[in-house]
User: Which sequence fits this backbone?
């Protein structure tokens, strides 16, 4: 019985501690306030691709049925702080996602999330790059970050225009590229996700730091929609990759309460249609948006993955004291 | 029919695909932060040995293959089939040329082998890691020459041919590593 032992070497635990000190110094210097928000919530994310864990609370003050959801990111309460006038804020916390375990996933992991009122998406990407380069500096120089539109990444690595292609074209392209596809995979977005994971991300493996930006409206999540230079409707969303490893996701945050409610309800409908559980939507977030969210950009960065990249770890277990199978 | 969810995927798991039994060699969970989760697996066909890739949506299930590894004693070859017996139940099975494959040249009666059975039928035979076999033919030995580094071919009682040191003679009994097909030592009878 060796399972009491940590999976990560002590050196990785030290590197984690140094990274935490480094990011706190970075934000202190930039006047970004560290905050804490609850792990437990009466509401949960409705995104059909992210499953929340939940638990039961037996004391006073909770929801009538006692059911509380473990946050998948601290986004909603942090936006409530922003609406209440907090100014720029950051948080480091453990977040929880059901079903996600593998070489690059653990069902609980450390997220660094921060919000910058008044900053553009471009300016936030520059700040993400500065932070990542600073935190990686003791270990490696990843070189300057490239900016690549999500569409261009598909053109370059999958040889297809993801805005023009319908589902059958995506299916044929996957077959032509020799991508093993699940039986019965249906919907444009799942096919795009298959191509992303099977060819686009591996195509970024030797590219160092790459920001993908301007996601399709169907993958906007909580980002605003704008028109790109060619007039396409795109989401002001970006993702940072390092050597093909997804590190961070950011938005120009949607502040329109009515539009946010429509998206939540559409997601709930999709969950209902596919037989997934339908968690309650976050009325407190919607009320905060109603009261007024300052124009801001926000981003969440996976610290365990950044640590993997710093230490050259192949597996998330190598940077976690106790991954799920030893928890 | 038993089945496995993608959450149970791990290397070594035996599953049915298109009517054939496969073993999972590699399993990888991949998921964009805000997208569909997949399990990408590399699997080997237990009948043909061919390796292919498959991808499943995470949460899907796949039929389990009724495949197990059992230890059985080799009895004899009737010219077409190799016959094995379970030493506990005395139950016998016969394996054809495809299942026995390369193992044929190491099989000596009474030896315990590892058989992979699918629905009770042998898919493959793995000989013991080490076997002791008698030399039936080799060039005359240089008696006493246990130091010079040369080697020569020797035919063993099962028909296998291995490289052996020059001092080995007909009727010597040798220990052979079946995984590499290499001579290990001479066994004193």
Assistant:
């Amino acid at each position: 019985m060796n399972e009491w032992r940590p999976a990560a070497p002590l050196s990785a635990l030290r590197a984690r501690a140094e990274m935490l000190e480094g990011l706190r110094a970075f934000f202190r210097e930039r006047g970004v306030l560290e905050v804490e928000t609850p792990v437990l919530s009466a509401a949960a994310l409705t995104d059909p691709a992210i499953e929340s864990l939940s638990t039961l609370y037996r004391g006073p003050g909770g929801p009538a049925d006692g059911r509380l959801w473990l946050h998948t990111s601290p986004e909603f309460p942090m936006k409530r702080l922003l609406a209440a006038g907090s100014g720029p804020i950051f948080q480091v916390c453990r977040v929880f996602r059901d079903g996600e375990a593998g070489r690059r996933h653990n069902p609980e992991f450390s997220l660094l999330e921060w919000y910058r009122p008044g900053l553009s998406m471009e300016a936030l990407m520059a700040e993400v790059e500065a932070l990542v380069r600073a935190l990686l500096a003791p270990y490696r120089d990843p070189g300057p970050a490239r900016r690549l539109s999500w569409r261009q990444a598909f053109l370059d690595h999958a040889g297809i225009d993801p805005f023009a292609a319908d589902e059958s074209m995506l299916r044929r392209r996957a077959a032509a590229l020799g991508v093993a596809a699940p039986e019965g995979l249906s919907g444009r977005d799942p096919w795009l996700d298959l191509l992303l994971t099977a060819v686009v991300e591996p195509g970024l493996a030797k590219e160092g730091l790459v920001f993908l930006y301007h996601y399709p409206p169907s993958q906007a999540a909580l980002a605003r929609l704008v028109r790109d230079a060619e007039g396409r409707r795109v989401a002001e969303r970006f993702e940072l990759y390092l050597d093909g490893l997804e590190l961070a996701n950011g938005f120009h945050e949607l502040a329109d309460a009515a539009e946010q409610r429509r998206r939540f309800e559409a997601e709930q409908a999709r969950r209902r249609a596919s037989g997934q559980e339908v968690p309650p939507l976050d009325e407190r977030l919607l009320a905060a948006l109603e009261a007024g969210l300052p124009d801001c950009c926000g981003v969440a960065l996976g610290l365990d993955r950044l640590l993997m990249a710093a230490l050259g770890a192949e597996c998330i277990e190598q940077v976690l004291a106790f991954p799920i199978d030893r928890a | 029919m038993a089945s496995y969810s993608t959450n149970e995927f791990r290397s070594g798991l035996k599953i049915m695909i298109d009517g054939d039994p496969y073993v999972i060699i590699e399993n990888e969970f991949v998921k964009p932060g805000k997208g569909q989760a997949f399990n990408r697996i590399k699997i080997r066909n237990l009948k043909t040995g061919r390796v292919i890739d498959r991808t499943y949506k995470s949460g899907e299930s796949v039929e389990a293959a009724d495949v197990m590894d059992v230890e059985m004693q080799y009895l004899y070859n009737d010219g077409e089939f190799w016959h094995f017996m379970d030493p506990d139940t005395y139950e016998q099975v016969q394996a054809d040329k495809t299942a026995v494959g390369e193992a044929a040249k190491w099989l000596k009666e009474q030896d315990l082998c590892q058989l992979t059975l699918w629905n009770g039928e042998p898919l493959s035979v793995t000989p013991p890691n080490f076997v002791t076999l008698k030399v039936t033919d080799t060039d005359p030995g240089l008696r006493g020459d246990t130091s010079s580094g040369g080697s020569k071919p020797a035919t063993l009682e099962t028909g296998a041919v291995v490289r052996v040191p020059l001092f080995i003679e007909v009727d010597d009994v040798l220990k052979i590593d079946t995984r590499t097909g290499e001579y290990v030592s001479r066994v004193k009878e």
